[in-house]
Design brief:
Elements (H helix, E strand, L loop, with lengths): L1 H43 L12 E4 H4 L11 E4 L5 E6 L11 E6 L1 E5 L4 E5 L6 H4 L1 E8 L2 E6 L1 E4 L2 E4 L1 H4 L1 H5 L11 H4 L18 E7 L6 H6 L3 E9 L2
Amino acid sequence: MKKKLYIVTVLLAIVFVAMTSCDDYASYAEQRDHELSALSRFINNPSFGEIKGKKINVISEEEFLKDTITDVSKNEFVRFNNGIYMQIVRRGCGNIMKDGESATVISRFREYNINGDSLQLWNDDVYYGQQLYEKFEVRRASGTFNGMFCTVEDSNTTLHGQMYRYGARTYGTNSIYHKIVPMGLLMPLSYVKLGRPANDGDEIAKVRLILPHDQGQAEADRYVYACYYEITYEKGI
């Protein structure tokens, strides 16, 4: 009798887990559909940022790799096979990082929640920009970039960039993980030059990015929404 009761209990537990998993999957599927719908609307009619009102013309990764150029005048974005969209606004001065190289990167950005149709994080404000720029250490190995956010030292004061500052909530779940730079934000370093302006006409690299939930920061992944970025990359000292 006890054996039969045990078997019935186990079977009920399995059914409960299966039902819970199905509910979770359906919930994720619905969120994913909402993300894709919002992304489709944004591509056809961007509602914010520097490209507001300009339809995005998508080119394939294969087409992009022929010359690694996106025509800004046509508002071209390359869609990579991992779902990331990128437009190179300025390739920048300096050099593209090579395998085995490490560098300090200074970055300013605007982050928009595509599902929420809103600006949610930025550090390019004229007043705050100098002290709140993002700083991270990056290394390239076997074509892959890895980065960690750093503190910013200014007048003997330790400061944090916006991504670092809100890391525990937005970019991760603990004191170690939230210091990791999302891979999607490092991907452009394969195609843009990292340097510091030294001559007239020199410019730092700038790109526009669309990161699906699984390629960006932790909160976007948790709540399944894509983010649009306008972001610059400059070599730090």
